[in-house]
Write a structure and sequence with these properties.
The chain is an alpha/beta fold and 362 residues long. It has a single domain, classed as Arginase, Chain A. It has eleven helices and ten strands. The protein is globular, with a radius of gyration of 19 Å. The structure holds zinc ion (ZN).
């Protein structure tokens, strides 16, 4: 049996010591290095995954999706903060003043503050996405992980998996938040388009709506974004992910959202996934499927409220495999550290077994 490539970088380890403000309480960030470590250990123990480090891809693929101002800010803000004495070199940077649409409504000025840390509030949308000394390098490495994973699939593997940390699907063109800085899945999809694909599909199975991915491709007819997620009427990120959001302009009809009720179990989830997969099949992608894979749908996830069990991921993966498309699987969320490895094994083993042997030739 051939082994499945897994791309992993140790750069994420320096994106650590994170805190977030949730419900008025400062607490350790749920998005912690142990997540990726646990997944890696569980796949290693399987013995059927071959591990590789990512190739460096430089900034161009990131700038194809993100505003250069966002990229520059993330690159320099930590050093700026240390120089200005803002963090004392230890405290994570979290913006406290946000340039919301309501703030700037009716004002002509787009002038931003001179100081890097003060500028963060113009590019960030929450208090859950702290920046520390190793954040930029980790975010860059996560993009390299994603792109290298895609290259394995383009080279003929039916499935490759990138342990992207930090995750990416909440990051928009000029926006970071939701533990995400660069949108790994969007960068891969864009790369596939630039490589000649005319129809690329992204399937997002994270518990949360991928507001960033939706935004980036909102007016694009060549990239279909399909997401199953907790209904934003009750769940983060609150302001996107409704079923009525379907894209606009050239992208009208190429966004599809499937909001889910609290405690949705595998039966309800599979019914929505069946509809989602039909949308993808109708779109007829001519590139590998880009899969934003989150395990915060798990029944014991500390920040989710769905009810999937470890064995359920195998069933869902077989459904995804039924598309017959090769899959670039990229890690997004999932915060039940004690189960995330088993959940990844359940999903990936089943997906590998479900994919037709010839899929890698697509
Ligand atoms: Zn999530």
């Amino acid at each position: 049996m051939s082994s499945t490539p897994v791309i992993y970088s140790t750069a994420h380890l320096a994106h650590e010591g994170l805190i977030e403000l949730q419900d008025g309480v400062v607490m350790p960030c749920y998005e912690m290095p142990q997540r990726a470590i646990a997944i890696r250990q569980a796949l290693k123990a399987e013995g059927t995954y071959r591990f590789a480090t990512p190739l460096e891809h430089g900034l161009d693929p990131i700038l194809a999706v993100h505003d250069v101002e966002l990229v520059r800010l993330l690159e320099h803000v930590w050093a700026d903060a240390v120089e200005a004495g803002v963090t004392h070199g230890t405290r994570a940077l979290i913006p406290d003043t946000f340039r919301t649409a309501a703030y700037v409504h009716g004002q002509a000025s787009s002038q931003l503050p001179d100081s890097g840390p003060a500028r963060l509030g113009a590019f960030c949308f929450d208090t859950a996405t702290p920046i520390v000394a190793g954040t930029y390098e980790a975010a860059r490495a996560a993009v390299d992980v994603a792109l290298t994973t895609a290259e394995r699939v383009l080279a003929g593997d039916r499935l490759a998996y990138g342990i992207c940390r930090p995750p990416g699907h909440h990051a928009g063109r000029s926006l970071f938040g939701g533990y995400c800085f660069f949108n790994n899945a969007a960068i891969v999809a864009q790369r596939l388009v630039e490589g000649g694909a005319s129809r690329v599909a992204i399937l997002d199975l994270d518990y949360h709506h991928g507001n960033g991915t939706q935004q980036i491709f909102w007016e694009r007819g060549d990239v279909l974004y399909v997401s199953l997620h907790a209904d934003p009427r009750r769940a983060y990120p609150y302001f996107s992910g409704h079923a009525a959001e379907k894209g606009s302009g050239a992208g009208a009809g190429t966004t599809a959202n499937f909001p889910l009720a609290a405690r949705t179990d595998v039966e309800g989830y599979a019914a929505a996934l069946d509809d989602a997969l039909r949308r993808i099949a109708d779109f007829a992608p001519d590139a590998p499927l880009v899969l934003s894979l989150g395990f915060d749908t798990f029944e014991r996830d500390p920040i989710g409220d769905l009810a999937l069990r470890t064995a359920d991921y195998a069933r869902l993966a077989r459904m995804v495999g039924g598309l017959g498309l090769p899959v670039v699987a990229l890690q997004e969320g999932g915060y039940a550290i004690d189960a995330i490895g088993a959940n990844a094994v359940s999903f990936l083993n089943a997906l590998r077994d479900a994919l037709p042997a010839t899929a890698g030739k697509t």
